[in-house]
Design brief:
By secondary structure, the chain is mostly helical. It has two domains: 25-84, no CATH class; 117-602, Cytochrome c oxidase-like, subunit I domain (Cytochrome C Oxidase, Chain A, Up-down Bundle), CATH 1.20.210.10. It is built from 21 helices and no strands. α2 (25-46) packs antiparallel against α3, α12 packs parallel to α14 (366-380) and α17 runs antiparallel to α19 (467-497). It is globular, with a radius of gyration of 25 Å.
């Protein structure tokens, strides 16, 4: 009788979620495929098959159908449509959307809880890095010896294009995605992001964009590298249409995420959390978000114009109709250099947090750190044309752009000194986050010094277009940002799972990756100094030995990343229990229980000091 009464009471409680209960990633994929097929069918039957732009119009219709169907299939439009017909979500609906009581299945659904979205970003980052890494191995396998033996030049160019863009997308979200979602609201003392449904939309829009980007390889690939230079891009196959739409959709994702981050930080801070008391990672998140809102629309605009040239016979980039390739070059690099710092700043800001905790010291010159990150973001807007020193565009502007590029080393050096100053004479706790942080420091020195060479016009004339440039930006992205991202993963992993990331496997991964980075990219520097050009699928025998070393190093990096993947997966349920605050940190994300409650805080905290007030008795005299 008691059981029957309990079942009756449970049945009487209204179940929330509605249509969302039937929607997940599988239905999103099905919806994307169905709508892509429908749009293709309609375009195939109603567009003029004799038109010069027919294939591009059909491809564009197909990509639009994919993203619309994907959004419908994941449930992005359910709540707005309910609101339009006067049936707004109930409390039970909102709780279901937040993933309450759904276990691991909530990670594969449209879920509004910022902590779930953070975990979804971790999964998405690993998928993007894995796909990009596989393409990197394909590239290095082609280059292990001279001569085309694995793929031809056209396929190789496609590998270069998709590998480059996948890795950039992965590193843009590698720190800002997981931790900008999981810990930033808690650090601010907020119960959620400012716009929870938009937060979920940003994640699933990124998934849809990644699907389009990966499909590029299957529909004709690209022949002009990840920069997709015009007017060559106008002559490419339909893979260019998929690539362009992927970038436009990705820009929607970053714009939504950036606005949400800024609004959350500026409007939802708890009492006493003044701007002067914000954790440095929060500063890094808001500066990177603002810089992304400035930079990424340029890339979206370029790809929109490319699609218009290809489908509507406009002439933005077609020279014989009054267009110019310089427009594409300038718009692309107006995005291309700030994008580096959108990637770098969250990783650096996370390392400030880690350095303070692991050395038991306050951040050395908090205001200098914030000023350095702000100055770096500001100057990054003014340096784009150094990518065009060798093109012949506006040679009289070479001097000013050389100056602004060299000036950017000042704020870079400032926040680097803050990081070193925080560690100096501290009681360093050599745990996994610290080890990866020191790897970042070592690699970033090489990345920064070699970047100064490329800002000098006479040297750039010799080195531009060679493997030296490739080695430099890989030291920035792989040697620096990736190491910072893994350090952040190891640091906040206990807050997500309640367990430590496996220390032994993490250290093996570190040494494999660190050694692999040095072997790979120092050998690549040597190739570049000897004159080996970028993006070639074959090369002269003079570069044979350095390319062999580079390929061996790349496989070592891949081995290190596979060990790290194994550590992440096995530690999730079997790692050493960590407790709510294993690092004895002072910021708010460590003050809440693990697992973190749905609304983070039962009672919102009141802040009376900054989060770096560590006891002086723990600092060496």
């Amino acid at each position: 009788m008691t059981t029957t009464l309990e079942q009756a009471k449970t049945a009487a409680i209204p179940q929330g979620g509605g249509l969302h209960r039937r929607l997940n990633m599988a239905t999103a994929m099905i919806g994307g495929i169905v709508f892509a097929s429908l749009f293709w069918y309609l375009a195939h039957h109603f567009l003029d098959a004799t038109s010069r732009t027919y294939s591009d119009e059909v491809a564009g219709s197909l990509t639009i159908g994919w993203i619309v169907g994907f959004w419908l299939g994941i449930g992005a439009f359910v709540a707005p449509l309910r609101w339009l017909i006067g049936r707004d979500n109930t409390r039970a609906d909102d709780l279901y959307l937040a993933g309450q009581g759904q276990g691991t299945s909530r990670y594969w659904k449209f879920t509004t809880d910022h902590k779930v979205v953070g975990v979804q970003y971790i999964i998405m980052t690993m998928v993007l890095l894995g796909a990009g890494g596989i393409l990197a191995m394909a590239i290095r396998t082609e280059l292990i010896v001279p001569g085309n033996h694995f793929v031809n030049q056209q396929v190789y160019n496609g590998f270069i294009a998709v590998h480059g863009m996948l890795m950039i997308l992965a590193l843009i979200v590698a720190v800002a995605g997981p931790w900008g979602n999981f810990v930033v609201p808690i650090m601010c003392g907020a119960r959620d992001m400012a716009f929870p449904r938009l937060n979920a939309l940003s994640l699933w829009t990124l998934v849809g964009a990644a699907g389009l980007l990966l499909t590029t390889l299957a529909v004709g690939s690209l022949t002009m590298g990840w920069v997709v230079l015009e007017p060559i891009a106008d002559q490419a196959g339909v893979g260019m249409d998929f690539f362009a739409m992927a970038i436009i959709v990705f820009t929607v994702s970053t714009t939504v995420a950036g606005v949400n981050t800024i609004c959350t930080i500026l409007t939802m801070r708890t009492k006493g959390m003044t701007l002067a008391r914000l954790p440095i990672f929060v500063w890094g998140a808001i500066i990177a978000a603002a810089l992304g809102l400035y930079a990424f629309p340029y890339f979206s605009l370029v790809e929109a114009q490319t699609l218009m040239d290809r489908t509507f016979s406009t002439s933005f980039f077609v020279a014989n109709a009054g267009g110019t390739g310089w427009l594409q070059a300038n718009l692309f690099w107006l995005m291309g250099h700030p994008e580096v710092y959108v990637i770098l700043l969250p990783a650096v800001a996370a390392l400030f947090e880690i350095a303070a905790v692991m050395s038991r010291k306050p951040v050395f010159s908090y205001r200098s750190a914030v000023a350095g990150m702000t100055g770096l973001a500001g100057l990054s807007i003014l340096v784009w044309a150094h990518h065009m020193f060798t093109t012949g565009w506006a040679p009289t502007l070479g001097g000013p752009f050389m100056l602004t590029t060299e000036l950017i080393s000042i704020p870079t050096g400032l926040f680097f000194l803050v990081l070193i100053g925080t560690l100096w004479r501290g009681n360093i706790w050599m745990k996994l986050p610290t080890i990866w942080m020191f790897g970042f420091i070592a690699n970033f020195i090489i990345a920064g010094v070699t970047g100064i060479y490329l800002s000098d016009i006479p040297l750039d004339d010799q080195l531009h277009g060679t493997m030296f440039v490739t080695a430099h930006f890989h030291y920035v992205f792989v040697g620096s940002v990736l190491f910072g991202a893994v350090s952040a993963l190891a640091f906040w992993y206990p807050k997500v799972t309640g367990r430590f990331l496996n220390e032994f496997m993490g250290r093996i991964s570190f040494w494999l990756t660190f050694i692999g980075v040095q072997v790979t990219f120092l050998a690549m520097f040597a190739s570049g100094l000897r004159g080996m050009p970028r993006r070639y699928s074959s090369y002269a025998f003079i570069f044979e030995h350095t390319n062999l070393m580079t390929t061996i190093g790349a496989y070592i990096i891949m081995a290190g990343m596979l060990v790290l993947l194994g550590a992440v997966i096995t530690s999730w349920n079997k790692g050493e229990p960590a407790g709510p605050n294993p690092w004895h940190a002072n910021s708010l994300e460590w003050m809440v229980p693990t697992p973190v409650p749905l609304e983070n805080f039962e009672v919102l905290p009141v802040i009376t000091e900054d989060p770096y007030n560590y006891g002086e008795e723990l600092v060496r005299s």
